[in-house]
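Box 3.1 A note on notation
Throughout this textbook, protein chains are presented in two layers. The first layer is the amino acid sequence; the second is a C-alpha coordinate string describing backbone geometry. Keep the layers aligned when reading.
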Amino acid sequence: MLAFLELMQPSLPECAGALHGECVYRLRVVPVFLGVGGHLKPDLPGLAAEIRDTYKDLEITVEPPIGEQPEVIAAIARVTAR
Protein backbone atom coordinates (compact mmCIF):
# COMPACT_ATOMS: atom_id res chain seq x y z
CA MET A 1 0.00 0.00 0.00
CA LEU A 2 1.33 3.43 -0.88
CA ALA A 3 1.28 6.19 1.75
CA PHE A 4 2.53 9.77 1.80
CA LEU A 5 4.27 11.90 4.42
CA GLU A 6 2.62 15.20 3.51
CA LEU A 7 0.46 17.07 1.03
CA MET A 8 -1.02 13.92 -0.51
CA GLN A 9 -3.32 11.22 0.75
CA PRO A 10 -3.47 8.66 2.19
CA SER A 11 -1.11 9.40 5.04
CA LEU A 12 1.03 6.73 6.66
CA PRO A 13 -1.12 6.71 9.83
CA GLU A 14 -4.26 6.36 7.67
CA CYS A 15 -2.75 3.41 5.79
CA ALA A 16 -1.61 1.79 9.02
CA GLY A 17 -5.11 2.14 10.44
CA ALA A 18 -6.71 0.67 7.32
CA LEU A 19 -4.31 -2.27 7.28
CA HIS A 20 -4.78 -2.87 11.00
CA GLY A 21 -8.52 -2.89 10.38
CA GLU A 22 -7.91 -5.71 7.89
CA CYS A 23 -6.06 -7.70 10.60
CA VAL A 24 -2.56 -6.83 9.40
CA TYR A 25 -0.21 -6.83 12.40
CA ARG A 26 3.19 -6.40 10.72
CA LEU A 27 3.95 -3.28 8.71
CA ARG A 28 7.17 -2.74 6.77
CA VAL A 29 7.77 0.84 5.62
CA VAL A 30 10.15 1.31 2.68
CA PRO A 31 10.62 5.05 2.08
CA VAL A 32 10.70 5.92 -1.62
CA PHE A 33 13.42 8.53 -1.23
CA LEU A 34 16.92 8.56 -2.70
CA GLY A 35 18.53 9.19 0.67
CA VAL A 36 18.01 10.27 4.25
CA GLY A 37 16.91 13.88 4.40
CA GLY A 38 14.55 16.18 6.22
CA HIS A 39 11.49 13.96 6.03
CA LEU A 40 13.25 10.78 7.01
CA LYS A 41 15.11 12.11 10.02
CA PRO A 42 12.39 13.69 12.19
CA ASP A 43 9.11 13.06 10.35
CA LEU A 44 9.11 9.33 9.61
CA PRO A 45 10.35 8.18 13.04
CA GLY A 46 7.72 10.40 14.65
CA LEU A 47 4.96 8.92 12.52
CA ALA A 48 6.19 5.38 13.24
CA ALA A 49 6.12 6.14 16.98
CA GLU A 50 2.61 7.58 16.66
CA ILE A 51 1.44 4.42 14.89
CA ARG A 52 3.08 2.19 17.53
CA ASP A 53 1.33 4.16 20.29
CA THR A 54 -2.03 3.93 18.53
CA TYR A 55 -1.88 0.25 17.54
CA LYS A 56 -0.04 -1.57 20.32
CA ASP A 57 -0.29 -4.94 18.54
CA LEU A 58 1.09 -3.64 15.23
CA GLU A 59 4.77 -4.34 14.58
CA ILE A 60 6.19 -1.58 12.39
CA THR A 61 9.67 -1.55 10.90
CA VAL A 62 11.19 1.26 8.87
CA GLU A 63 13.71 0.26 6.23
CA PRO A 64 16.46 2.50 4.83
CA PRO A 65 15.34 4.67 1.91
CA ILE A 66 14.99 2.86 -1.41
CA GLY A 67 17.83 4.94 -2.86
CA GLU A 68 20.23 3.46 -0.32
CA GLN A 69 19.37 -0.17 -1.12
CA PRO A 70 22.34 -1.96 -2.76
CA GLU A 71 20.25 -3.12 -5.72
CA VAL A 72 19.07 0.41 -6.49
CA ILE A 73 22.58 1.84 -6.15
CA ALA A 74 23.84 -0.82 -8.57
CA ALA A 75 21.03 -0.05 -11.04
CA ILE A 76 21.81 3.68 -10.91
CA ALA A 77 25.51 2.93 -11.45
CA ARG A 78 24.68 0.79 -14.51
CA VAL A 79 22.51 3.50 -16.05
CA THR A 80 25.00 6.30 -15.42
CA ALA A 81 27.92 4.25 -16.76
CA ARG A 82 26.44 4.14 -20.27
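Residues 12-80 form a domain with the Rossmann fold fold (CATH 3.40.50.1400). Helices lie at 12-21, 39-54, 70-80.
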